[in-house]
Design brief:
Elements: H1 2-31, H2 42-75, H3 82-91, H4 93-124, H5 128-149, H6 153-159, H7 164-175, H8 179-207, H9 215-232, H10 235-250, E1 255-256, E2 262-263
Antiparallel strand pairs: 1-2
């Protein structure tokens, strides 16, 4: 909650003029017009936005990990308070950030190589342009593949108590052979979060009597979307924790049973 308040306070005070300037500058570039004057304290505002974004990113990892910890403990028939779950998540924050950085580096490498190859084909002209388009499609597919395979990083780090690199590898192994299943769940979770956002934030924002493009309207919109984001945030960690149990079971691992105890994993066929 504090991180969201910091981010939305920054957006409401210094962020909105910066975003508006970028929008006007983009239109001026397209139309060949002079660039609009920069808002006051432009560099300081950019730094504040960057810092607020980083704080929100780390806070989102901690919040996700805390929900995973609570879900895991409740699923096992125990209990875990909010403060204890946050402390546990903070203890694992370096591993959480490290795993995210590994995924980011993997995506960045694929993106750089793909864009470089596609640009080379585009410069060749003729039929090579089609090859460049195929390369770009392959880049998007590869990035999606990496994202899906690393979906369970935070869950493995919290539940298994492993470090960032091992959390990345374990997520990769668990999702193997079940990528489409996981992708389907991710799509459903995304739709659920969109539905919550539309109901909680979209309707109030659309019906607000505040003057459009005013500071009051921007502040209200920022606040109401923040509330919607907070309400929708626990959905994904809860679902991902349950997916984690399911995939462990499918890989033949012992998993916790609802309410306590353990269940033997699915017997794996013998490989010849």
């Amino acid at each position: 909650m504090p991180a969201y308040l910091i981010r939305y306070a920054v957006d409401a005070t210094v962020g909105n003029p910066i975003y508006e300037w970028f929008s006007q500058a983009g239109r001026a570039t397209q139309l060949g017009l002079p660039q609009p004057p920069r808002p006051p304290d432009f560099e300081i505002a950019l730094l504040a936005i960057a810092l607020a974004t980083m704080v929100q990113f780390v806070a989102s990892l901690v919040a996700t990990a805390a929900v995973v910890a609570i879900t895991d403990r409740v699923y096992r028939g125990a209990a875990l308070g909010a403060r204890a779950s946050v402390r546990l998540a903070l203890e694992r924050v370096l591993s959480l950030v490290g795993a995210q950085l590994l995924m980011f580096v993997a995506v960045l490498v694929v993106l750089m190589i793909g864009v470089l190859l596609a640009a080379t084909f585009f410069l060749g002209g003729g039929p090579l342009v089609f090859v460049g388009l195929v390369v770009l499609v392959g880049v998007v597919a590869t990035i999606l593949f990496i994202t899906v395979r690393s979906t369970l990083m935070s869950v493995t780090i919290i539940v298994d108590g492993v470090g960032g690199p091992e959390g990345f590898r374990r997520s990769w192994r668990l999702v193997a052979d079940h990528g489409w299943r996981v992708l389907g769940y991710l799509v459903l979770v995304g739709l659920a979060e969109v539905l919550v956002t539309v109901v909680v934030a979209g309707l109030p924002v659309a019906l607000t009597p505040l003057p459009p493009n005013s500071t009051a309207q921007a502040t209200f919109t920022t606040a109401i979307y923040g509330v919607a984001a907070i309400l929708a945030a626990p959905v994904a960690p809860i679902v991902l924790t349950l997916i984690y149990y399911d995939l462990r079971w499918r890989h033949g691992e012992t998993v916790p049973a609802p309410g306590g105890g353990e269940v033997a994993g699915l017997a794996q066929p013998e490989r010849r």
